[in-house]
Amino acid sequence: MRDLSRPARQGREPCPHPVDEAAGSRLSTAPAQTGAEAPARAPTRGPGHAAAGLFSVAILWVIAFAALDEATLRFGAVLAAVVIVTQTQPATFARAPWLGRVFDAALLACFAFAGWWFARVTDQLWTGFFVATPATLAAGIGGIAVLLILAGRAWGRSLVVMALAFAAFAFAGPYLPRPLSHFGTDAGEFVQVVWYSFDGVFGRMTGLVAENLLVFLILGALFEKTGAGDSLIRISTALLGRVRGGAAHAAIAASAVFGMMSGSVAANIAGTGVFTIPMIRRQGFSRNFAGAVEAAASSGGQLTPPIMAATVFVMADLLEMPLILVIAAAALPALFKYIGLFAQVYVEAIRQDIAPLPPEDIPTLTARDWIDSALVIGPLVALMGAFLTGRSPAMAGLAGVVVALAMGLILTPRFRRDPRLIWQALCAGGISSARILLSVAVIGIVLAVINETGIAIRFGIAVAGFGESHLFYALVMAMLGALVLGMGLPTLPAYLIIAIVIAPAIVEAGVAPLAAHMFVLYFAVFSSIMPPVAYGCYIAAPIAGADPLRMSLTALRLSAVGLLVPFVFVTAPSLLLVAGGFSWAELGATMLRLLAAIWMLATALGGADPRAGRLVPAARAVRLALAAGALMPMAAIWCPTVLGAAIAGLGHPRPRPPVLRGSGQAT
């Protein structure tokens, strides 16, 4: 067991960028094969890191002091992203390295030419008198091509393939079968809508991300550099180590908070998984299970309020709701998702007869440890205080950055002695911001095509017509669509595309808008562990030394309750607390049903009864009854739930004291 006595000062050297570290040392080929949320190659140090650090400084400066017009802000942010990605993830040619530099220089020149024309016609764009010419057409095509090339370099093929598929759909409209057919477009109209309008690459979503969300990526990088992540792991281990499967429980708790702050499943796994996965393995869990726990918990961090990986701000903007209401709505679903994950881990510990952590591996918390907890609590309090006083998301993020920096300087001697760590955090935040901006800019191509062709409206009408009499099947269709559209994409771009395409269809079927958007967000997040892409598992697999596809199946089993919860709050919206028609009676009944479902799913899928404290083999019929009863909360049905619980009670013998391997006592 590594020394956990003073992680903030004696822990490993924090990596400049957790995603980059994971990709560079452990995942050099995965993105090219899977489209995973990891860079295709490790970034190099040099001008790119300097540009990334300056980009972070510019973001903070604009929030605090400056006011830029929307066109300048959006194009400037995307331009910075292009420069940073070309410099931190340069093109490489094995036989002629100089060709890579020439190719990247050509990309920058092409984008500069496209930007020059964009600036020239900005006034025409605002007045609506823009007319495409051969020069503007060539510039727009060049700018779009640069974005696609760099997005493929940063995120893998899946995002680029999706954008090209929608572009092909825009041109092929007249030749498509009836449900998909439309008037089509030509090159001039396509470039005008995608590049020269404020509905495409430089549209509303790019502006929202540039104005409000990038500061949270800087906060996540600073959160790691101050040692807050190590402090969180230490406290979680001390509090949960005495529970069976305590190392896995500690990993879940740490990943929930770290993932909420980092804004990336990949960064979460790389930042905490290098500690937690070996710790889970040492307790006796299999390699596959250890990696699956980290992948499932890290994906769930994107659903944890109040930050929710910055997706909460996009949702509040799309719904035109106060931010605090969206945060409140996310609280109980996230809680039950994590209760389900804890229950699955506990049952697995019983099934494998794994004892709690030995006393020598459980750190003893001191007054200093509780003081160091301010590294985590301080920024969160600052954020919530800013939200409650009505500040904008950008100002709330700036407050969190200032407090995180102050806590690091006060509480972490190494951070105080080495100012380079602040610069490294700014560089890491700038690189994350650049990559996210590229993905959102490419998603702008998709959104422009959707708006121009009206395909989302037709899809919504079709699902709504089906959902009038079969809402459950309409939700299953929406779930499958969300999982497919979100595969290989980071959380924010995945939610954006799914919210535009699928959420309106669910609303048309009769679901409350807040519940519909929360529904698609959950499945956008779970796409990170959905095979065959399962990019979260591809990042965890090299750390655990396990097969990523087998790990993804285990992660899905562990996340069974999380897959159930969205269906529950659609049928019982009181679980969201702020949805229309709130009822205390419905909320109480729903919570009881969910708790029963968690117990039954854990028993049915894990093969052990948590009441017995030891492995109790159950007949196949009993486990099937438990699984069936656990699914009934989706329809708010009591009888099968009670029947399943009764069968479970009759199907197991009386519990006996556990016989444990290792030291410690079961809790």
From TrEMBL:
Function (record text): Part of the tripartite ATP-independent periplasmic (TRAP) transport system.
UniProt membrane topology term: Multi-pass membrane protein
TRAP C4-dicarboxylate transport system permease DctM subunit domain: residues covered: 144-579
Comp. bias regions, Basic and acidic residues: 1-20
Transmembrane segments: 50-68, 74-91, 98-119, 125-151, 158-176, 201-223, 243-269, 323-349, 370-388, 394-413, 425-450, 521-546, 558-585, 591-609, 621-650
Residue numbers spanned by region Disordered: 1-44
This protein's name: TRAP transporter fused permease subunit
InterPro entries according to UniProt: DctM, TRAP_DctM-Dct_fused
